[in-house]
Each structure stands twice: as C-alpha cells, then as structure tokens.
Design a protein that fits this description.
The protein has 112 residues and is an all-alpha fold. It has one domain: Orthogonal Bundle (Arc Repressor Mutant, subunit A), CATH 1.10.10. It has 7 helices and no strands. Helix 1 crosses helix 4 and helix 2 crosses helix 3.
Length: 112
C-alpha cells in the first residue's frame, strides 16, 4: 500500500488526497482503504504527509526550485508550515538542504 501511495502521490503531491480520491486511485472502497491503512498502524493523512515530505526532499536535492515553490508543488499553502513540517520530519530546515546542495556542487566544480 505504501509504495502505491508513493507512486500516485509523487505524480501530483499537491492534489487533494482525501479518502475518496485515494480509494478511487487504488480501485478499492473507502472502508477497505481505511481498514488496510489503519491495520498497518497508520492514517491516510500521515501517509499523504510523508509522501509530500519525501517528494519535497527529492525536489530540494535534485532541482534549483525555490523552497517556496517546492512547498507549493508538494501541497503546502504556507511556506512557514512547510518548513516546520520538513524540519520536524528531517531534523533540518529545507533551506539548509538547499545550501548543502549548492556547497556540494561548488566543491565539485572547484575540485573537478
């Protein structure tokens, strides 16, 4: 279930991923979806949030998109709420991930 959720969510992490939408994406009823997710000790909201945060990390590491745009592409309306959620999950601010990426690229350029 987790991998399938990730595959669908990464295609459109900003979408409104509610129980009905997710159930349709997986071709199951809402009650079946909830039962399966809860049976794994999780919630739909937590799964959607995790996919969005993983997608955000990937975008910060592989693109030069501004942090605010990454936040929007991953479903956050608020840059500050995104930053707080990102830091809570990864123990580092998104701006730090971006700065480290630039430092690494600069080091490769200077040493290459």
């Amino acid at each position: 279930m987790g991998r399938a959720c990730s595959a669908h969510g990464r295609q459109r992490p900003h979408a409104e991923w509610n129980a009905n939408t997710l159930a349709s994406a997986f071709n199951v009823s809402e009650s079946t979806l909830r039962r399966r997710v809860e049976g794994c000790g999780n919630t739909l909201a937590r799964l959607v949030r995790e996919v969005r945060l993983e997608t955000a990390l990937s975008l910060l590491q592989t693109t030069e998109l501004p942090v605010g745009e990454v936040a929007q592409r991953c479903g956050w309306d608020s840059h500050s709420r995104f930053s707080a959620a990102f830091q809570e999950r990864w123990s580092v601010a998104p701006i730090v991930v971006r700065a480290r990426l630039k430092e690494s690229a600069q080091a490769l350029t200077e040493n290459g």
